[in-house]
């Protein structure tokens, strides 16, 4: 498992308000499998993570969405947290970045509120996915089919509902990133 993602580069797209465990656990999983990881965000500097509604640690940003080249990455992870995807979904550079992964057929993982950003990127129509339950109507209105499952995979798109689903989510994103383009 330590080399399943050797030579792969994975982007984690997050900003202030990211749910810390939804950023750190998937990052640890892909790095443990041999991937190089970059934190892509709205601005340079650092982002403030949260543990539910309480501030937690900060994390250094590697590159902004405006400067990031989606072609340089083999996969994308969209962690949740309520504020994080809500900030991301209004940024045109973020939406361009996210769309590029879907256009290229590259694997993407999104957990909890992470799919909100995908709605505004226009990439959920016709897909089946899961998320935090409050996104169900938003996803349906965007043309997706919502399911209540621990982890769901739709042609390289891996989604999960909440932090309790992280073991299954982390295992499945490593598997999908190892498979590559779909």
Automatic annotation (TrEMBL):
Domain DJ-1/PfpI, chain residue ranges per copy: 8-176
Keyword presence, Kinase: no
Sorted UniProt keywords: Glutamine amidotransferase
Pfam families: DJ-1_PfpI (PF01965)
Family stated for the protein in its record: Belongs to the peptidase C56 family.
Protein's name in the database: Type 1 glutamine amidotransferase domain-containing protein
Organism: Micromonospora zhanjiangensis
């Amino acid at each position: 498992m330590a080399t399943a993602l050797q030579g792969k580069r994975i982007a984690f797209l997050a900003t202030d308000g990211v749910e810390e465990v939804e950023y750190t656990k998937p990052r640890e999983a892909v790095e443990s499998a041999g991937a190089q990881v970059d934190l892509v965000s709205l601005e340079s500097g650092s982002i403030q993570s949260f543990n539910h509604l309480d501030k937690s640690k900060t994390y250094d940003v590697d590159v902004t969405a405006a400067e990031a080249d989606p072609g340089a990455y083999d996969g994308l992870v969209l962690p949740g947290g309520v504020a994080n995807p809500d900030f991301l979904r209004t940024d045109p550079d973020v939406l361009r970045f996210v769309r590029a992964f879907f256009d290229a057929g590259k694997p993407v993982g999104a957990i909890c509120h992470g799919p909100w950003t995908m709605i505004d990127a226009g990439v959920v129509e016709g897909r089946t996915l899961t998320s935090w339950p409050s996104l169900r109507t938003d996803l349906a209105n965007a043309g997706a089919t919502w399911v209540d499952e621990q982890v769901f995979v739709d042609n390289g798109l891996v989604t999960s509902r909440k932090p309790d689903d992280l073991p299954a989510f982390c295992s499945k994103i490593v598997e999908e990133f190892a498979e590559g383009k779909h």
